[in-house]
Design goal:
This protein is α/β, with parallel strands linked by helices. The protein is built from 6 helices and 6 strands. It has helices at 2-14, 28-36, 53-60, 87-105, 127-136, 202-232, and strands spanning 21-22, 70-76, 110-115, 141-154, 162-175, 183-194. Strands 1-6-5-4-2-3 form a 6-stranded mixed sheet, with helices on both faces. Helix 4 runs parallel beside helix 6.
């Protein structure tokens, strides 16, 4: 009984129209407390092999503001699977990408949004390689995201079988100039679909549900990025400090 209640609770949370989980802007009091306090240092000597204590202090006390006008490059993390099932799903996947780009371009802070050409995607997905790829593309910001899904199938006796997909999109925004990741977000969506007579098999039905849920979640991520670019540049956030490079 307890297990059943737990499962129902989790599904109720996932079933919301959208449940974005994203970073929030720092309050001005944070910078006052950091600047006034001592630099301190790591309690672990091995930490200095990657970043020095002074560098970490400088990074944490840096007040970020996005560029006044940006080109955003998008890079999916992982393989896209929907277009392998049918022409209909391939078209739907292309439409999803187009809608996301249009949503980003609608921001007055974004003059261009496009997917990073596959030939520029680095084999190693570490921050230094991602920064270099974005810089070669002259992208001010790089939006890296990955999607994940879970499907629950319902087989009906007198009605068409259904598939319900719970999908999420996890995204990070990388600033090419500074190497900072000033914003992250996770959005989840649920979508139920009935098997269509034109589906080759029920697996295609399942993929259609996942694609629709992912498209909605990715749209939420796009909206979150647009909102962040406006809020982060608000005068209440603070004055821009000299840029730092990592």
């Amino acid at each position: 009984m307890t297990r059943t209640l737990l499962i129902l609770t989790v599904l109720a949370v996932l079933a919301g129209c959208a449940s974005p989980v994203s970073t929030t802007a720092r309050p001005d009091d944070y910078y006052t407390s950091v600047d006034a306090g001592p630099a301190g240092g790591s309690l672990f000597a091995g930490d200095a092999r990657t970043l020095s204590d002074d560098s970490i202090q400088r990074i944490l006390s840096y007040r970020y503001e996005p560029p006044a006008l940006s080109r955003i490059a998008l890079m999916p993390f992982g393989r896209e699977v929907w277009s392998r099932w049918s022409e209909e799903l391939a078209v739907a996947a292309a439409n999803m990408e187009t809608e996301v780009l249009e949503g980003l371009r609608a921001s007055p802070r974004v003059y261009d949004a496009s997917y990073l050409p596959s030939i520029l995607v680095p084999k190693k997905h570490s921050v230094p390689y991602l920064r270099e790829a974005a810089a070669r593309y002259q992208a001010d910001l790089l939006l890296v995201y990955r999607s994940y899904c879970r499907s629950f199938d319902r087989y009906r006796l007198f009605r068409a079988d259904e598939s319900r997909a719970y999908c999420g999109v996890e995204a990070v925004l990388l600033d090419t100039r500074t190497g900072l990741v000033p914003f992250t977000t996770v959005a989840t969506r649920a979508y139920t679909i009935s098997r269509d007579k034109d589906d080759n098999n029920f697996s295609e039905t399942r993929m259609r549900a996942q694609l629709d849920a992912t498209a909605q979640a990715l749209g939420d991520v796009s909206d979150e990025i647009v909102s962040f670019l406006v809020v982060a540049d608000s005068p209440t956030v603070g004055q821009l400090r000299p840029a730092i490079q990592f």
